[in-house]
Amino acid sequence: MSQALARTARIPRLSRFGWLMALYAENHARLTRLFAPEGLVAGSYLSSVGDGLDVRLDVIETHRYTVELRLTYDLCDPLTGEPDPSAFVRLYRDARQAEATHCYVGRRWQDVIGLYPPPAEVVSHRMRMNTFLGKWLEYLAEQGHGVATLRMVETSRLDVA
């Protein structure tokens, strides 16, 4: 029994915050492999694979260490007129992490979990958003989206900011 306890004591445990940081790193790797947004200039891009669901990547702003972007399908929700699903992503170039800051245009984290949530609730909310982003990026890659299918578009049907 003591050997089993000693063996499990050597296995490092990852905190929820550590898990979230690892999720950010995975999302950075997926996003970089898929669309290479670090090399894109600000503007709107479409990726079309012929399935009728074009993916829109809006590079909102590029900074020295970050890239702000929005990932969505090129269609609007008939009720709100906003793109849905939609994920706003902050890509950290130096840390090699990509964080989904919010996943629906009309709802920020304050609208979802309140103004003064406990820290555990904030981490849980961020984990859900970034798990969604990771699964979505994986799905887009399986559908054939990527750098080869990405093209810049002149006019944007959707407002970026």
From TrEMBL:
Domain of life per record: Bacteria
InterPro entries: DUF1249
UniProt name for this protein: DUF1249 domain-containing protein
